[in-house]
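User: Could you check the structure of this?
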Amino acid sequence: MDTLSVSDINKKYSEYISGRISKLSETLYNGYKHTKKGWYEFKKFKPLFYRSSWELKVCELLDTKFSSIITNIETPEPIPYILNEQRHSYFCDFKITFNNNKILYIEVKPLHKMDTDMNRAKLKEAKLVWGKNFMVATENEIFSNELEKNILKYYND
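Assistant: Sure, the predicted structure tokens are below.
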């Protein structure tokens, strides 16, 4: 068995740590490696972490158009779902509490990703848990005034 020099050990350890950090960052970003992300600073509410430019746009809409009827915006607690006989956790993007005590959960999702096995399982469980208090916003709703209309309709129903 060859004995490694201190330099070789340090190099191998550095490569190992670099690989671990890379895997950890992918886990932390949860598949959002190449999207815009950061903390949105609401005028009235605690900051919220967004993972895409579309989620940022929803934050801006909530902050500018609905802040007078909203009492809180946060990321909800995860809900469990089963996929391929394995248990997973689903984190919805927004939990919005209105001044009339209604709570709305909004998931932001690209239309082309709606029909994957994972997303079907997540959204099915969300609909079971939150029922009519849950909606999905795709680019169709976000980049038109449909999301705004849907939020108002939910609030007024």
